[in-house]
Amino acid sequence: MKKSLALVIFLLAIPSTVQAGMDDLLKQLPAAGQMLNNQGGGGSGGSVSSLGQQDMVSGLKEALGVGIKNAIQLLGRQNGFMGDPQVRIPLPPALQPMDKLMSIGPAKTYRDQFIGTLNQAAEKAVPVTADIFANSIRQMSIQDAAGILRGPNDAATQYFRKTSSNQLISAIRPIVSKSTQEAGVTSSYKTLTGSLPQSKLSLLSNVTKQDVTDLDGYVTGKAVDGLFFKLADEEKQIRTNPAARSSDLLQKVFGAAGRR
């Protein structure tokens, strides 16, 4: 195992050019909040406290639009992941035992480039998720909306995890794969793990509890986790902080939900 990890470090030390140019990400970001607010509500079902059904659905959709847009803007920009310790993507498990060794001398430059590329890949992929969240909201029933309003501070985030995780992974992974393949350090990692004997790969996978050849899957999973983490934080703010309720409807709906 030590020899295999040493090979990883060796290949990471190959000079490379890390992808940059993330400044145009926000220009490509869909107007998620407006998109979600235009989806409409209706149907029949229960209510929360004295809220009318239309107010409940419209207020929830407005809140989700605000929360999703904020989460995407926070993460889908330069240093959105890398600059935030709460969501920063670390070395893959196969390399983490060697992190201290890779943090000194010439290896540190390539270690930092490697980590930077993983986080840049996630930052580049996040903006494509707005349409997926909009589709999930279109499928939301009156009962779903009432349950979310009555639920814990991350009830909407839990709903999205249940209804959208697979679609988010499918949308994000191709962008991550392209980014990591174009960057020298991560491309070298893929080349290395793709050439190791199966016995070595099995040993590393057993130790790390992860497929060490699936770098793109690792980054994609971390990107989705980071997105849900920020969405949960935005949701909690709207539920618990009156100042975060940016419209009369949000104040009415979440004020009533808070008094349930």
Descriptive notes:
By secondary structure, the chain is mostly helical. The chain is 65% helix and 0% strand. The chain is built from 12 helices and no strands.
Q: Which strand-content bin applies to the residues?
A: under 5%
**What structural class should be given to the helix and strand makeup?**
mainly alpha
Helix % is: 55-70%
Shape by Cα distribution: elongated
- Helix count equals 12
Order of helices and strands: HHHHHHHHHHHH
Task: Give the beta-strand count.
Answer: 0
Distance between the termini: 56 Å
The count of domains is: 1
Q: Compute the gyration radius: what is it?
A: 21 Å
Largest sheet composition: none
Mean pLDDT: 76
Name a few traits of the molecule.
260 residues; disordered N terminus; 12 helices; mainly alpha; elongated
Could you give a quick summary of the protein structure above?
The protein is mainly alpha-helical.
Itemize the secondary structure elements and their pairings.
Layout: H1 2-12, H2 25-28, H3 32-37, H4 53-75, H5 107-125, H6 130-138, H7 142-150, H8 155-182, H9 184-195, H10 198-208, H11 215-240, H12 248-258
Helix pairs in contact: 1-9, 4-6, 4-7, 4-11, 4-12, 5-8, 5-11, 8-11
